[in-house]
Structure formats: C-alpha cells, structure tokens
Amino acid sequence: MFLFPLAEIESSPSTDTKKPRPNLRNLALRGKATQSTDYGTGFALNAIDGNHNGVYYGGSCTHTKAESYPWWRVDLKRKYRVMSVSVTNREDCCSERINGAEIRIGNSLKNNGNNNPVCDKISSIPAGNTITFQCEEMEGRYINIVLPGREKYLTLCEVEVRGIAAKSPQKELSLSLIERVVMRRGKLHFTVNIANLWQLKRSKKRN
Ligand SMILES: [Ca+2]
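Structure tokens predicted for Fucolectin tachylectin-4 pentraxin-1 domain-containing protein (207 residues):
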C-alpha cells in the first residue's frame, strides 16, 4: 500500500458503490415493453404504466392471444444489476393463468430473450395481488416473463423492476483502486490498492 497526495489522483474518493441503495426507483417505467401477441387492447406497455389496477377492462393490463409460450419483455435500455421484479396479477378473472410463468433476466435477445437465465418461477399470485421476486443482482438489460405451455394467455397488470446500473468491469476496477482516504496536515491522502492498479493497467492494454 502506498500513499499518494491528492494532486496525483484523479479518481473520486468514493468507493462505496456496492451497497444497494434504499428506495430504488422502478426502472421499468422508463423501459420499452413488447410482447409476443396483442389481444384486444391488452398492449405490452400497460404493464409499465405505473397503474396497478387489476381489472382488465380498466385498460391497464396486458393480454396476449392464446398461444404456445406467450411472453412479455421490457427493455431497460442499458444493463442493470436487478435486485427485484414485482408482478401484479389480474383481479377480475383468470388469476390462475399466470401460474408457472418464468421471470428471466439477461442481455441476449436470442429467442426473444426467453433463453436468458431464470430469476424465479411464479407458482401463483392471488387475484389482484402484487408479489416481489428477489433476483440477487442478476445482470441484464432485458426482463422477460414467459409462460411455458400450449394455448396459454399471458396477462400482467403491472411489472416493476428495481436494481442498480451495472458498470463495466474496468470501471468497477477503477473504483476499487482507492481503499482509504485520510487527512494529514491539511492534505487528503489516498490509500491505493497496488494489485488492482496493475490489473487495471493490464486490462487497458488488452483493450
Ligand atoms: Ca398497469
């Protein structure tokens, strides 16, 4: 460990980047939603309109046609480490239709994103209720909800996604360089992790 005077370091002294922040905002509200098919006015964006109304004819729930493996997806437009996904089920009818749906998170659009890793499987959600599924910081830009099976309808009245922006491995490494900041004789000194410094230099050379 070496001590460097402030003038030699350009990085921010803050290294506290890994703690989940409380009251994370709902990322889905700024996303772009799509789904396998539209039934009536049950458009994909109804699940990210900020309205939890579970009555389908209230105009705030999605609805696919009856098909094999119907799916819904929200594109968060950049990569996030996803803490949780909350799903609100339909209230006025057919609440069992959601049973068995899978929540998938990842960065691939292969098979419309339905091959991405599974965060959780929905066993059931009582009519009109919202259940939150913990995703343990799974990284992804796309959140899919897919319902395995044939002749299935997928209806979602609201989907909320909470997480923090995923940083590039190089940026993570940069932020991990500075381990400690102390004030000595009126000057700030930074304790730098030399092992991470060499690792960062090597990764920059590779790029
Ligand atoms: Ca809604």
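Residues 53 and 132 are 17 Å apart (CA to CA).
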